[in-house]
Design goal:
The chain is of the alpha/beta class. It has 2 domains: 2-160 and 361-379, Glycogen Phosphorylase B (Rossmann fold, 3-Layer(aba) Sandwich), CATH 3.40.50.2000; 166-357, Rossmann fold (3-Layer(aba) Sandwich), CATH 3.40.50. It is built from 18 helices and 13 strands. The strands form 2 sheets. It has a 7-stranded parallel β-sheet with strand order 3-2-1-4-5-6-7, with helices on both faces. Strand 5, helix 6 and strand 6 form a beta-alpha-beta unit. It is globular, with a radius of gyration of 21 Å.
Length: 380
């Protein structure tokens, strides 16, 4: 069968690639075409557009690239219609994907599946109308989303969390070897602190600069930045100290050998927790005081990090908007280091997190649901 997938960022590329592998196991004749990334391309199929050519964040960047965004959307619509897949699978990226879903529903009979729900429980809850109208099936990776959608009379399926799959698979295939990791990346013998500053240039610029201010206060640790796909080494060099190292395509290896981390909100916070690395969640925004005020008015959830949203409490500290200052980060970071006052509490919270998320198998279960649905549809 033919599967068309759309992602818009690095984490979506990872989860879509795992889903594609599972689909191939369920369907020997699986064909893929996609808006995606390198990981999806490594599984096989045709890459129509790379996500790095689509990742615009914030009002001004989006405004400046409106023509490109509309051109990409037009290309996507026509390409799906022309290829005539058996199913369209959308992965997160709601601003783009929900518009595509609406068009496909209006102009074709191609079923639309959504893997990794838009975060409408946090904001833009009005999008539930679009989802109920245009999405045939929602496959959720967050347990608390079941109750959210239930109140809107829209049943969904929780399939588990793909980050659990990815981390479990990595740890199973990569026994810890700190000496080799240090040698291969030219690091010292000091304890390693991971810095995950986001996957978009704006996030990296805004957060990495402030993270670097803190590193000077902790000379007994070495700080290593996880380079994001599609972001050059030269871009990072503008914002890091001379002694700070960067590693590319080794985020999991970095987390495996780190004692603590500073992480920009997103999937990375959950992955860091699954590796058992105490973290401070950092998300700077310009006009911080205004953003903090608007957050209280419009944001429908208490937390922004997946770790805290899933556990339902402040397992890790979140420094957001005007709270993301070098002074605050320095104090919070000191508390999560070995011997710090908050370290043990965070590790206990991580145990609760793993219990709530359940066992590995999200990609496999999602693939089975999709293939079973398509098989029944063909038989009819």
């Amino acid at each position: 069968m033919k599967y068309y997938l759309i992602v818009g960022e690095a984490s979506g590329d990872l989860h879509a690639s795992n889903l594609m592998r599972s689909l191939k196991k369920c369907d020997n004749n699986a064909e893929f075409r996609f808006f995606g990334g390198d990981l999806m391309q490594s599984v096989g199929g045709t890459l129509v557009k790379h996500y790095k050519d689509m990742a615009y964040m914030g009002f001004i960047p989006v405004l400046l690239h409106l023509r490109t965004i509309f051109r990409n959307m037009s290309l996507c619509k026509s390409d799906i219609v022309e290829w005539k897949p058996d199913v369209l699978i959308l992965i997160d990226y709601p601003g783009f994907n929900l518009k595509i879903a609406k068009y496909i529903k209006q102009h074709t009979d191609i079923p639309v599946y959504y893997y990794i729900s838009p975060k409408i429980w946090a904001w833009k809850e009005y999008r539930i109308k679009d989802i109920k109208r245009d999405i045939d099936k929602m496959l959720s990776i967050l347990p608390f989303e079941i109750d959210f959608y239930k109140k809107h009379n829209y049943p969904i399926s929780y399939v588990g969390n793909p980050s659990v799959d990815s981390v479990s698979e990595y740890l199973g295939n990569h026994p810890s070897d700190r000496l080799s990791f240090i040698k291969d990346n030219g690091l010292s013998d000091k304890p390693i602190v991971a810095i995950l500053a986001g996957s978009r240039k704006q996030e990296i610029r805004d957060n990495l600069t402030r993270m670097m201010e803190v590193t000077r206060s902790f000379p007994d640790y070495q700080f290593v930045v996880a380079g994001a796909p599609g972001i050059s080494h030269d871009y990072y060099k503008q914002y890091i100290t001379p002694e700070t190292k960067i590693v590319f395509s080794q985020t999991y290896g970095l987390l495996q050998h780190s004692v603590a981390a500073m992480v920009t909100s997103g999937t990375a916070t959950l992955e860091t927790a699954l590796f058992g690395v105490p973290q401070v969640v950092c998300y700077y925004m310009s006009a911080g005081k205004l953003v903090s005020l608007l957050r209280k008015i419009f944001l429908k959830v208490k937390y922004i990090s997946l770790v805290n949203l899933i556990t339902g409490e402040e397992t890790v500290k979140e420094l957001v908007a005007d709270g993301m200052t070098a002074s605050n980060l320095k104090n919070e970071f000191a508390s999560i280091l070995p011997g710090g006052t908050k370290r043990e509490g965070i590790l206990k919270g991580y145990s609760d997190l793993r219990r709530i998320l359940g066992n590995p198998g999200a990609s496999k279960k999602a693939a089975e649901i999709i293939v079973e649905f398509l098989s029944e549809r063909i038989e009819k």
